[in-house]
Amino acid sequence: MSEYGIVIVSHSSQIAQGIYDLIQEVAKDVSITYVGGDEEGGIGTNFESASKTMESNTADKLLAFYDLGSAKMNLEVASELSSKEIEIYDVPVVEGSYTAAALLQAGVDIEVVKSQLAEMNLNK
Amino acid sequence: MSEYGIVIVSHSSQIAQGIYDLIQEVAKDVSITYVGGDEEGGIGTNFESASKTMESNTADKLLAFYDLGSAKMNLEVASELSSKEIEIYDVPVVEGSYTAAALLQAGVDIEVVKSQLAEMNLNK
Q1: Cβ contact (<8 Å) for A15 and B11?
Q2: CA B59 to CA A60: how far, in whole Å?
Q3: pLDDT value, residue B36
Q4: Active site amino acids of B
Q5: What are the residues of chain B with a beta carbon less than 8 Å away from any beta carbon of chain A?
Q6: Catalytic one of A10, A11, A88, A117
Q7: What's the distance, Cα to Cα, between the start and end of chain A in Å?
Q8: From the CA of A80, how many Å to the nearest CA of chain B?
C-alpha cells in the first residue's frame, strides 16, 4: 500500500461515492476514504464526519480534497485535532483527487505529486 | 428561466447526480441536464447519452462540463451533430459548473460568466 492516503469530503454523498468509484479504479493500492452530505443525507458537510473519514483511513499521511468552502473549514478543524499528517488541497475535487490517486498508485515521488497538484490550484 | 442551460457529463452516474443536486440548489431557474456512467451503470461515458442530455435541455444555448478526457470527446461529437449552440469548458466539473450555475441564476452577463470560467481552465 502507498504510504499516503486520500481523503474526499464533499457536500454530496453521491459526489463523494462517485469520486471513490472513479479513482479507486486507478489506485487499488491507495487507501481512499470519503464522506459527503449532512447527517440527514442532504447537501452539506460537518466536522464529525470529516474527522471520522480521516481517522478511518489506514494511512497516517493524508492528502485531503473537498468541493466547496465549508467542507474545507471542517477539514481544517478535523486536521488540527488529528495526530496524522494532513495536507488539504485547494484543487478541483474530482480532477485533483484523480490525479493524486493515479500518481500515488504509480509510485511517483510525493514531491512530484505535490507539485502536480500545485499546478491545479484554484481560488476556492 | 435563463437563456443558457448547463449540461454535465461524468464517468460516474453518482457524480453527475450529486453535481445536479448541489448546483440546482443555487440555480432554480437554470435548465440543468446531466448524465454519468456507461449503459450498464459502470464507470464510463458514451456519445448517445451525451447527445440525449444536450437535446433534453430546454435551453438552446448550453454550457457543457465534463470530468475526464473521453467524456469531452463524446461531448464534442454530440455538439457537432446538434443544432444547439454549445460551448464545452475544460474546467473543474464540480467547481466550474457550480460557478456557472450561480452566476447564471444571478443574471450575470454571459460574457462575465465565460470570463470567470476561463480563469478556472485546466489542462485536461
Answers
A1: no
A2: 48
A3: 97
A4: 11
A5: 10-19, 21-22, 25, 36, 43, 67-68, 92-96, 98, 120, 122, 124
A6: A11
A7: 31
A8: 25
**Is B25 in contact with A36 (Cβ distance < 8 A)?**
no
Burial of A98 (0-12, 13-18, 19+ CB in 10 A): buried
Average pLDDT, chain B: 96
Q: Can you tell me the distance from the alpha carbon of B95 to that of B118, in angstroms, rounded to the nearest whole number?
A: 13
Chain segment B60-93, per-residue pLDDT in tens: 999 999 999 899 999 999 999 999 999 999 999 9
Here the cell at position A116 is: 502536480
- B120 to chain A, minimum CA–CA distance in Å? 7
* Identity of the residue in A13, A43, A67 whose CB atom sits nearest the CB atom of B94: A67
Residue B55: which pLDDT band, with cuts at 50, 70 and 90? very high
Contact (CB<8Å) A93/B98:
no
Mean pLDDT value of segment B25-33: 97
Per-residue model confidence as pLDDT tens digits over A40-74: 889 999 999 999 999 999 999 999 999 998 999 99
Q: How far is CA A106 from CA A26, A27, A119, B64, in A?
A: 9, 8, 19, 31
CA A100 to centroid of chain Cα atoms: 9
**Alpha-carbon span A68 to A90, nearest angstrom:** 9
